[in-house]
Amino acid sequence: MDSVTAPPPALSLTDPALYINRELSWLEFNRRVLEEAQDPEVPLLERLKFLAIFESNLDEFFMVRVGGLQQKVQAGIIYGSGADQMPVREQLERIEQTVRRMTAETYRCLHETVLPSLEHEGIIVRGLKDLTDADKRHLRLVFQREIFPVLTPLAIDPGHPFPHLLNKSLNLAVMLRRPGDEEQLFAVVQAPAVLARFVQLPSESGATPRHVFTALETIIRMHLPDIFPGMNISRDAVFRVTRDSDIEIDDDDVEDLLKTIEEEVRKRRRGAAVRLQIEDDAPLEIEQFLTTALDLYASDVIRIPGLLDLTGLFQIHGLPGYPQLRDKQFVPQLVPEFVQAPDPFTAIRARDILVHHPYESFSHVVEFINAAADDDRVLAVKQTLYRTSSDSPVVRALQRAAENGKQVTAVIELKARLDEERNIVWARELEKSGVHVVFGFIGLKTHCKVALVVRREDDGIRRYVHLATGNYNPQTARIYTDLGYFTCNPDFCEDASALFNHLTGYGELPQWRKLVVAPSRMQSWMIEKIDAEAALQQAGKEGRIIAKINGLLEPAVIQALYRASQAGVKIDIICRGICALRPGLPGYSDNIRVTSIIDRFLEHSRIYYFGNGGDPQVAIGSADWMDRNLSRRVEVVFPMEAPELKQRLIRDILGTTMADNVKAREMLADGTYRRLPCKPGQPRVRCQERFLEMAAENASRRLKEIAPATVPMVEVRTSSRRPRKRQAK
């Protein structure tokens, strides 16, 4: 990726040569996603899924990152804001070159390997040339009944200006003429997003059951004469537009954040075009017409050698059946501490509980909020919401809690990128139910994951806290790896209460007992911990740092890591995505190893380990080592102090992750990655596969350790006002 040679040791730690460009590092992350689609050991339908993920990732990259760079060029800004100081125009040129190469790789993988192999298994995608006469007769009926009534042909002439095409929509550009007239006309037909991306064709009589599809735009293309009756159609081409979708808010000019976000979301739909994808064989006249109409340059055009918009492949991945073409199904394990207890509060009172998702069930988090909503002893519920599902049981529980007369507060982040509209809807729904909705601070995103329940018990008021590395989203909790921590430890509860008071009211920052909170002191805390390991190493003791994170970009943290490496501290960074640090540079990062794991589940948990002279300190939380997390967000990282849980993090989770030699890739100093080789005689370790096994083993072991007879019979009062007694089964 980067031709930079190892810098001499005389360089300052702020020298741009010591840093990888953010955008190019992100593209390397997406390349690793593409490698999963190219991996013959990955089941076929999962390879198809990774192609769809790759495309979806690239869409967001152009909508946010490339759009932002283009705005900088238009504003006359020469240099990027990253520590690498790469000029903005050079970034755009490097992005263009890389994306073109990756696009070619993507379609080679799709056309030469994945689709032919799927066809052998009975899943077929037919293009226009492959359709049989029977297919065409069937599609004629489908077009007339289901597609044509929804279409709107759009003429483009002095009386009909070029339409504003929806972001990421599929369209056909059509060149046509009136009979007897040589004037070239243009029109656009948009493939309706409300229709399925692929239309299934009937299987031939007597044939082995198969799933045969053709793309929606293929059907539209077949019937252009019906859409433009009486016209002579000369050429057509499928194209797709990506628009700048980043939201910029002037923090000094915001009176009503909700209204401001709503207005910015509306503006997003009218955002400037940043990329044009068009069929590889599209006429040059159509390309030139579209680039002019969309105010794009030739460098913004990507010609696609096949099917446009691979995110549509999610539809085929979702087909029923074909277990041999998928990852082995799994059921998240229930946590015995919760299963054996009559209610979540009894379980948490007995001991602190750490839950490892998706290997262990997210249902316990939902049950915790549901129990709070229905238990008459619960007085208040407070929760942060950054991203959640479209039909969220957590939000429904908060609504029910408010309707049951409890004091309910929801801190909703309206600026959660690309989820703003959903969060606005939830905010209004919660307010209707009587929930006190707060939008946090202007200028800061509230990204921490915290839920607090206040309950009246026989011995007084007790608080229960859930802290997590991931969102309160049951859907992503099945595909993201995250950690959740339940406790009623008074110090954690006091901090959680102080955090919510800080988010909803006025006042000086509290003196935190356990939580490390950004932006007030998290960055300084992290650097203090890194520097402490360097001091230990210099004093003759062994320094050790392990960080499992999603991104590493903050220059101050990178410089601290370079200093620690120069002191001799052994550092392992397991970084899924962007990494601006260059590992393995002589004199700077000889002792730093960076690996990345891309696998079935999206690695999302953050774990920080500091050797501390033989008494390890471990913390988890919502923050990465990114400038945005440490400076522009409300984040929470917290220590794991219970000895059993701390050892589980160190031995089981970090230890197993670091042992991965199947899905792990090692970062080189130039920013590229190589797969870690499995040495002769060394057992293959795929950490996510091992975590599935460990979850089942732990559940079995804990069930034996926790005897049901030891669980006291307690009274749980529900909102029905009828006390009932429950005992563990």
Question: What do you see in this structure?
Answer:
This protein is α/β, with parallel strands linked by helices and 729 residues long. It folds into three domains: 39-325, 2-Layer Sandwich (polyphosphate kinase like); 336-509, Endonuclease, Chain A (2-Layer Sandwich), CATH 3.30.870.10; 517-685, Endonuclease, Chain A. The protein is built from 20 helices and 29 strands. The strands form five sheets. Strands 14, 18, 19, 20, 21, 23, 24, 25, 26 and 27 form a ten-stranded mixed β-sheet that branches. Strands 10, 11, 12, 13, 15, 16, 17 and 22 form an eight-stranded mixed β-sheet that branches. The radius of gyration is 28 Å and the shape is globular. Residues 249-255 and 709-729 have low confidence and may be disordered.
Helices and strands in order, then pairings?
Layout: H1 22-38, H2 44-74, H3 88-120, E1 123-126, H4 133-147, E2 153-156, E3 170-177, E4 185-190, E5 198-201, E6 211-215, H5 216-222, H6 224-227, E7 232-243, H7 257-268, E8 273-279, H8 284-294, E9 301-304, H9 313-317, H10 336-339, H11 344-350, E10 353-357, H12 363-374, E11 378-385, H13 393-403, E12 407-412, H14 420-432, E13 436-438, E14 445-446, E15 449-457, E16 460-468, E17 480-487, H15 490-504, E18 516-518, H16 522-538, E19 544-549, H17 555-567, E20 570-575, E21 592-597, E22 602-603, E23 606-610, E24 617-621, H18 627-631, E25 633-639, H19 643-658, E26 664-667, E27 673-675, H20 687-705, E28 714-716, E29 724-726
Helix pairs in contact: 1-2, 1-3, 2-3, 12-13, 16-17, 19-20
